[in-house]
Amino acid sequence: MTDIYIGVAHLLIVILPVVPGCAVSVPASTLDDEAFQEAVATFIEQASSESVTKFAAITWKAAATIPEIRDTSDPALISGLLMTILEANGAAVAVPRLRKRVRDTVTFDNARTPWRRSAFYLVLRVAVQRYLYHHLGAEVGRLHYKTLMCLLHAQLLEDVLKKIPLDAAFSLRQKLGRRLAKLTSDVHGADRSAFNRHSNLLLSLSGSFESSLATTGGYLKQVWRNYSKSRERIIPKLRQYAHPHEFQLRLMNSGRFLKGVLVEHAHSPRPQQRTAPELLQLFERSVASVRPYMRALESHVASSRLLEDVVLPAKRSTQPEGLRAIRLSKVIHDYVTNINAVDHAYPNQKSQQLLHLMELWVLMDKDAVACYPLLEEYHPGFDPDLLDPIQLLTHEEMIRSQKVRMYLKARFRA
């Protein structure tokens, strides 16, 4: 059996079992007795299969003690009872002890069997190590044991390389490399006799170890290259020129719909084409034209029509002196009447109308002064700041307003 020692190194729990905890020597005559062998085998079988609450780990739940099946059982059933029975048939002996450093971890989260390391594997390693120590000596036996473990890892790596996850294969390869590095260091640090006996063995096996490491490394690299290649984004090379058929829009989804629209349009009767005045007259005769807002719209339309048909042509007209002033005075009279009839709720439109009105007056005053120069000695009746309150939206309108202001300012000085 083993005595377990737990030490803390660098904040990591290290399990150090000492093998064996106790040893008993049984005579060969007693060991060869079939009844004795059958009794020992029955005892060990029952001890491994039957649950003995007295030797089980105990936990508290709801103020009661219950066996903890996930924890390690107390080995007193073997180390106390079985070893006492064997000692009665033989004698207790003192043998050299081995201390193994076991890197086991315990994970109780969703784990019925929390111990990662197999106890049977530990027994096999201890048995092999003790056998080599007994027949080859401590130092040479230790080197042979480490070599045997390297062979075991290399063979395991070759057998399960393509069957286990890649991270497990990579971890196993690293572990084999670390074992080989430690073994090489131990061989070079051994005495001359041990070095001579073991260096030839290690040299003959180095090719096998290197082959295992190279095979595993090449396989892992190839898997990684294949994975990287499968995840690599393929960007096709853009041609310098397009093919002739690529200039035609195929319209795979909407082509049928567009063709149907064209066919329907070709067979549908064409509506009667009307001019803008006809459409306006048609609207005026409709029911919508009698709505209240249409009165304001009609006044604005009449004002715009007067501007386009009368005011602007009068500003561009060229007539003899005197006749032009008479015609402009009539246009101003009609335009003032129209302005007064339009709603005053639109200051921008009212400002444009006042600007047109003052431009007509400037043209009429110029023609009158040309006919009667004496008028230039009298006040025109308008101050230069007359157009300051108006609201204009464009730069062109502001320039026109400035010209009217400059003319009034010149007439005011005269």
Describe the model:
- A hairpin with a 2-residue loop joins strand 1 and strand 2.
- The radius of gyration is 57 Å and the shape is rod-shaped.
- The model is unreliable at 1-13 (pLDDT under 50).
- 60% of the residues lie in helices and 7% in strands.
- The chain has helices at 28-31, 34-49, 76-89, 119-136, 138-160, 166-189, 192-231, 255-267, 276-284, 293-316, 323-341, 347-371, 395-413; strands at 3-9, 12-19, 23-25, 58-61, 64-67, 91-93, 98-99.
- Helix 5 packs antiparallel against helix 6 (166-189), helix 5 runs parallel beside helix 7 and helix 12 runs parallel beside helix 13.
- The termini are far apart.
- The strands form 3 sheets. A 3-stranded antiparallel sheet has the order 1-2-7, with no helix packed on it. Strands 3-6 form a two-stranded antiparallel sheet. Strands 4-5 form a two-stranded antiparallel ribbon.
- It is mainly α and 414 residues long.
- It contains 13 helices and 7 strands.
- Among the domains are: 138-228, no CATH class; 297-413, no CATH class.
List keywords for this structure.
single chain, two-stranded antiparallel sheet, disordered N terminus
What is the mean pLDDT? 78
What's the count of strands? 7
For the CA atoms, what is the radius of gyration? Answer: 57 Å
Q: Strand order within the widest sheet? A: 1-2-7
Structural class: mainly alpha
| Separation, N- and C-terminal Cα atoms | 133 Å
Biggest beta sheet attributes: 3 strands, antiparallel
Please state the oligomeric state of the protein chains shown: single chain
Secondary-structure element order, as H and E? EEEHHEEHEEHHHHHHHHHH
Number of helices: 13
Beta strand %: 5-15%
Taking pLDDT < 50 over at least 5 consecutive residues as the criterion, the unreliable ranges are 1-13
Shape: rod-shaped
Helix content: 55-70%
